[in-house]
Amino acid sequence: MGHTVTLAGQGWRFDAEAPETVLQAAERAGIRLPSSCRNGTCRTCICLSTSGTVRYKIDWPGLSLDEKREGYILPCVAIAETDLTIQAPAAGKLPVPPRTDA
Question: Is the overall model pTM greater than 0.85, yes or no?
Answer without folding.
Answer: yes
